[in-house]
Write a structure and sequence with these properties.
The structure holds 2 protein chains of 2 kinds. By secondary structure, chain A is mainly alpha-helical. Chain A contains 25 helices and 6 strands. In chain A, β5 (601-603) and β6 form a beta hairpin. The longest helix of chain B has 32 residues, at 110-141. Classes of the chains: A mainly alpha, B mainly alpha.
Amino acid sequence: MINNEKFVYAEKGGYLVQLTQLLLFLILFPLIAAFFLLVAKTDLVRDWIVKLSALAIGIVSVVLLISTYDKGAMLVSIVPAEQIGLLMFVLEMLIAVFILYLGVKYRKWHVVLLILVQSAMMLYFELVHAHGIHVESNLFVDEFSNIMAMIIGIIGSLICVYSLGYMKFFHEHHTEMPDKRPWFFFVLFLFLSAMFGLVFSNNLIWVYFFWEITTLCSFLLIGYTKTGEATNNAFNALWMNLLGGIAFAGALIWLAMDGGTAMALSDLLATGKVIALVPAALIGFAGLTKAAQLPFSSWLVGAMVAPTPVSALLHSSTMVKAGVYIIVRFAPVYQATATGYLLAFVGAFTFLIASGIAVSQSNAKRVLAYSTIANLGLIVACAGIGTYEAIWAAILLIVFHAISKSLLFLATGTVEHRIKSREIDDMNGLIVRMPKIAAMMVIGIAGMFLLPFGMLISKWAAIQAFIDAPFGFLFIPILAFGSALTVFFWAKWMGKLLAVTSDGRDIEEEVDKSEWAALLTLAGLSFITTLVFPLLSTKLLEPFLLANYGQAAFLTQDNILIMILMLFMIVLLPLSILLPHRKHRHLAPYMCGRPTTQDLRFAGSLGIQKKAVFSSYYLQPYFGEAKLKPAGIWLCSTLIVVMLLAAALKGVIL
Amino acid sequence: MINIVWAIVFVLVAPLIGGLIAGIDRKITAHMQGRVGPSILQPFWDVGKLFEKENAVVNETQHFYAVCYVVFMAFTGALFFAGGNILLVIFALTLAAIFLVLGAYAANSPYSYVGAERELLQIMAYEPMVILAAVGLYVATGSFNVSDIAATTEPVILLIPGIFLGLLYILTIKLRKSPFDISTSHHAHQEIVKGVTTEFSGPSLGWIEITHWYETVFLLGFVYLFFAFNPLLGIAAVIVVYLLEIFIDNTNARVKWQLALKSSWLIAAVAGVVNLAALYLFYGGAA
């Protein structure tokens, strides 16, 4: 079903040049901006560079979408490949030396060992095999790359804009830390550049290069504050991702030993499963590390020590999305193989276990982290099954998760700076203290688990996909139990935010303008994407699925209409509060007949006034991290080992 | 596929049927307890009286959530009786249920807070089984549309008895019957006062009562689907199931939430999953 014909070679001349320029712009422009930011020393200059670059990147990613509209997948070959390949290799080695230096300096011997192994593999690859490999088209673009580019270009840029206000506040209030904002924004934009490179690269060696850059960027960002905890967690992220990098390098060597004829993504997917399965399994493993699936979940949770925009970026538009991007790319190879099902089980169990752990977390950022891990698990489960319906669900999950999660992280960051806490229990009555921010958080949370918002549509699609796939019914109970856990932890957070306390003071006007801009845009996007989702599906997803799978999934007209109706109800019902109505009589809450004031102060024994304080259920004995995580690590590690064995067995026998 | 007429009929008629069921329920319960009990129209008088009362609130937002609760519950049932997609119906049901929980949280009062958290625990307890039931109906009939499932000639109950059993178990939670009336109860024996509804009064509480009537009719409709191949049998089954629920309500003491959650999940995991697996293996799965 997969064949090379789906790739329309853009004809020489006008259009091809334009397309190449657009792709190169998106890869190189953030890089140029990054260097400018490195030398920009004043806030004013930095503000303008970031805002204008973000605007440019956002606009160009939309222009790219429009210009490639209805053109299918296109390969681009007019880039000087040889020189760039050499440059990439040199950069990789420089990065390796840098990591080696840091590893020795901080005495992280496992990192040293991993980077040595990886460099040795790449050195061997470059010296023995590289000259024999010729890839016709190094860049490409199709509907999926376009969707990813929109996520990186719009959401990623918004996070950069938000960082302006956040980091200013951060350094004003953390004077003990050196203000290295030029460096921070340099890495941020470098990250965007690498992500664009990753989703536009057709040559797997190029994909690998950008893959390693994202590993490096996340390492640098997590360790930004240079505290002991930050450094440790940064190295934790590094060694896990280096392990993935080694698997990726292994895939490259495997392909090179196979003759090196299928080093392009388009060629590899066209060759069918026989050659592709082993490299697909290895790259799938690399994807699991990057997407923080169990047993590698701890690096993403540990990444919470970084400033909040970093978490937002890692969780929504970069890093973990790179992991699931590559797994979804290889989905046609996984389809209906033992390797694919085992990969899907790793994802499905990660979804279940991470959702369970999220129930037990009281720290907002940790809840978000575990929810990200869980949702990525669902994406991996869909990709491992690899049917057209599953891929439809997977891509929808990627899109909607990026929007809701970035909104939630940024809102949490803003709240954290004002109330000086990340604890969900401390957010009680936020709707009174920070009404607009709380409303946006509620939109973000609703987007994660309620109809008619995107994530629920995607989960629905996932259920449908599981049912229709052979052996898919095994995944239904996992999804059903996992979803129930999701409802629990999101709803209790939402309830906390919406509790109306009478002693709150509005502290919202202190929030920076750049933070408002990013938050409002993302909140707007949550609604707009839900509204235009049928368009997204018919114009981008269906052509992509048709080209790759020969079939396309869609929702029926009726169901779309019902959901649009619900969306309008959700939007209009809150407005009903504005209608003139009788004022109700206000009474103090019931406190067992004790004399109680409106703000929950009651007369305790001995005549002392006490204040009632609430705390949520966290169900530690059932869903605690200490209980579930070890089980998840063992289960998923075993599955991964069996998955790699299954791939090796098939790859060697056939 | 969507039948608007049925949706409108549901929105208009369901409260009447639901109210009557509540009245009959109270009568039978009274007889079981050796009392005469009120007239079967009593629930209507009760709710009518609530609407005449003053709407005293802790804060203004509560009433809004109560209204959203009834609107989305009516929407859920309407979608179901109009023959819509059953997964969509289930997700709409969750949305409606969340509005009640939010209303309880919004009051920021200790009893309603505990009620809200327990209500969420109950949602978590029943949610997996409801999804498994929808999937079971799909595998047995080949469609997610209630209109198709209701029109099937397959003896659905014989294909998914395990799933039906699981659904019966969580139906007790959904109908707020003992032993699972953990977050709020119709009886006056709650240790958390009235749980989720503690801070609701007057018209707001009236709306919540009406919502419960809508929900009861919708849930009994769900039960009917398992017997839809024979409408008479279906109606008989619905009656038997409801009588059984009344019986269970009157013969069981309320349990702790831990037991409610564990047992619901265990039954979903055993009866539901085994039934689903058997169906796939022997029945070939969805056509």
